[in-house]
Amino acid sequence: MKYLFKYGCLVLAVLLMQGSLVSAQTKTKKILVIGVDGIINTAIDYAATPGIGALKANGSYSMSGYGGVPAYSSSGWSTMLTGVSADKHGVTVNESFSGNNFAQYPSVVSRMKSVLSTLVVASVVRTPELNTLLNGSADQKFQFTTDEEVYSKSVELLKQADMGAVFVQFSSPAETGEAVGFQLRQARYVLAIQKIDEYVAGLHAAIQSRTGYANEDWNIFLASTRGGTESGIPQSTTPEEINVPIILSGAELDKKELIGTSLAPRENADNVLTINKNPTNDRTYVRIPIRGTALQGMNKFTIEFWAKAGPNGSDPSIIGDKDWDSGGNPGFTICRSGSTWKINIANTKRERYDIGSSKPLEDGNWHHLAVVFDKTRLCTIYQDGEKVNESALTYKDADNMASPFDYLCLAQEGTQTYSGGYPNWAGSFNEVRIWTDALPAATIKSYMYLRNIENSNHPNKASLNLYLKMDEVRGSVIKDYSGKGNNGELVGSATERHPYYPIGLTDVAANVLSHFGIRADASWGLEGSVLKSNVPYRLFKVP
Questions:
Q1: Would you tell me how many other CB atoms lie within 10 Å of the CB of residue 136?
Q2: What is the DSSP track for 459-483?
Q3: Coil, strand or helix at 249
Q4: What CA–CA distance (Å, rounded) separates 421 from 328?
Q5: What is the Cα–Cα distance from 293 to 389, expressed in whole angstroms?
């Protein structure tokens, strides 16, 4: 009897849950999407923002989402509304929508209206092109010169009983940041953020005061289309501009802060490969066949990659093709050197150079490392886009720099058996690129944050001979996107894969469509991921 009672209660609980789910599903789906130009990723946690805090408490969010490169308002809005990055939608010029590819990648508003023709959609903006080029399918479109006017009209629209979706643009943080700098020590900039918070709270209150609110299922999304620099002058590629707050608030979304290292990797997203030290002492690394390719014995090269060091000792190779048991052996290695790093390189005559960085690598942060080698001239190393060391070289044209080994390895060296720091270097990789050319400093700095280099306007693209994005979510093949076919192979099992950025502007469109039950067609080429939770099944998960 006790088991009958126990399982009877369980069945009753499930039925009650299902009843609640049916009730939630019968509510009318509605959405408010608030885009703000110019909120830097540290501003919301610094300023007094109770209105935005209420959204965070009821949704999934990150203060360091990926806005995209270039980080302009025009590009950011295009990314957020189309759900694809700039290499697809084509908007790459500041304060311009020229070159757009909206015919192939239309706004999410067009996607919604093509499926839900009776859904009433409004778009209230500061930038007129958002209504003429992107949200032209909206039923009601308004453009104003101030945020206050945008706010007032949006409140009015949210009171309409038949309103189904409202897209809102605020621009005053960007305008203030451009005038005084995007700085938290600038009171005007902080006050501009706090004014946006007042608008957010007011819009939220307008929704909650609706007559039919009890029978409606509202999502409220808030995203900054780009950040800004301390000087206020746009550079389009700095972390301060690229990292943006993104908040997706709604009943079906998890209530948590999104952190990349705690999330599963996502298809078609910017993922990273983490290589750990295997407790069984088996080596884990990536190897790329180089025999007979342009990657073997390079006379000119630029090697650049993002790395986040894990716990290491001794001097393991981070990337290299030589026998690192002796620095005089031919070939090269970029390796750990104390708590920082260096490059060692030698020719077949055992003439070697060791050129090191003075900046910390093992500080728990991601760093961009770059080495530019021109055999008869100079070797220069960069960290985070800044030159940290260089050395004049005395190699001759006839000198042979080729290692005798068949593989270039990540987290190991050419022999694949180096024991210093055994069994392998531990850390994370992203965006590994090797160019058979000596790239200028300005080019390295301008393109270090850019993804999808193969589709970009990079001036040295013809000399790109290895491009590992590390975006794979499974398997042992690490694809080379340079077009040269130099695919890598993942050896060993001590690995993790997870997103580099936990969320991005491309995710906004994907979750707008998901909220309305619109399944994205593969031909649309959308890049975002749906964050919706399946609450009943998660509650009754079987161990």
A1: 16
A2: TTGGGEEEEE-----SSSEE-B-SS
A3: strand
A4: 19
A5: 29
Helix and strand counts by DSSP (H, E) for the chain = 14, 24
Provide the pLDDT confidence category of residue 25 given band limits of 50, 70 and 90: low
Helix axes 187-208, 172-180, angle to 10 degrees: 180
> What is the Cα–Cα distance from 208 to 58, expressed in whole angstroms?
14
Pairwise CA distance, residues 29 & 253, whole Å? 14
Choose among 311, 308, 319: nearest CA to 286: 319
Residue 467 has pLDDT above 80, yes or no: yes
On the CB side of 349, CA atoms within 13 Å amount to 7
Q: Of 92, 231, 244, 107, which is closest to residue 165 (Cα–Cα)?
A: 107
Tell me, yes or no, if the pTM score tops 0.85: yes
Residue 22 clears pLDDT 60, i.e. is over it: no
Mind spelling out the 3-state secondary structure of 356-410?
A: ECCCCCCCCCCEEEEEEEECCCEEEEEECCEEEEEEECCCCCCCCCCCCCCEEEE
Structural contact between residues 309 and 381, judged by C-beta atoms closer than 8 angstroms: no
Taking the C-alpha atoms of residue 465 and residue 289, their distance in angstroms, rounded to an integer, is 12
Which letter does DSSP use for residue 152 in this model?
H
Buried b (16+ CB within 10 A) or exposed e, 444-458: bbbbbbbbbbeeeeb
- CA 74, CA 95: separation in Å to the nearest integer? 6
In what side-by-side order are the strands of the sheet with 256-257? Answer: 140-143, 120-125, 163-170, 28-37, 216-226, 243-249, 59-66, 256-257
DSSP 91-129: --STT--TT--TTTS--HHHHHHHH-TT-EEEEEESSHH
Q: Which residue has the tokens 């311009």?
A: 96
Which residues, in sequence order, are CB contacts of 179 under 8 Å at separation 6+? 188, 232
Q: Look at residues 460, 440, 470 and name the one whose alpha carbon lies nearest to residue 366.
A: 470
Nearest in space to 286 (alpha carbons), one of 464, 468, 145, 149: 468
Chain segment 165-195, per-residue pLDDT in tens: 999 999 999 999 999 999 999 999 999 999 9
Q: What are phi and psi for residue 218, nearest 5 degrees?
A: -95, 135
The angle that helices 506-515 and 108-115 make with each other, rounded to 10 degrees, is 20
Average pLDDT score over the chain? 93
CA atoms of 290 and 297, how far apart (whole Å) = 9
